[in-house]
Specification:
Layout lengths: L10 H13 L4 H10 L15
Length: about 50
């Protein structure tokens, strides 16, 4: 069975997850999910969102 592909993500949920990830306030499982979704290989050196 092929891996499940994400077809859509609720934008407000994604934005909140990115903000919490940048602040270090995202639970590890959610941080791993976000890294997978955004294809992040290492913690970012700067903000993921413009103006963040």
């Amino acid at each position: 069975m092929p891996p499940h592909r994400i077809s859509w993500i609720n934008s407000p949920v994604l934005l909140e997850a990115i903000e919490r990830y940048e602040q270090g306030r995202l639970a590890r499982p959610l941080a791993l999910w976000l890294q997978t979704v955004l294809e992040i290989e290492a913690p970012p050196a700067g903000p993921l969102l413009p103006g963040g």
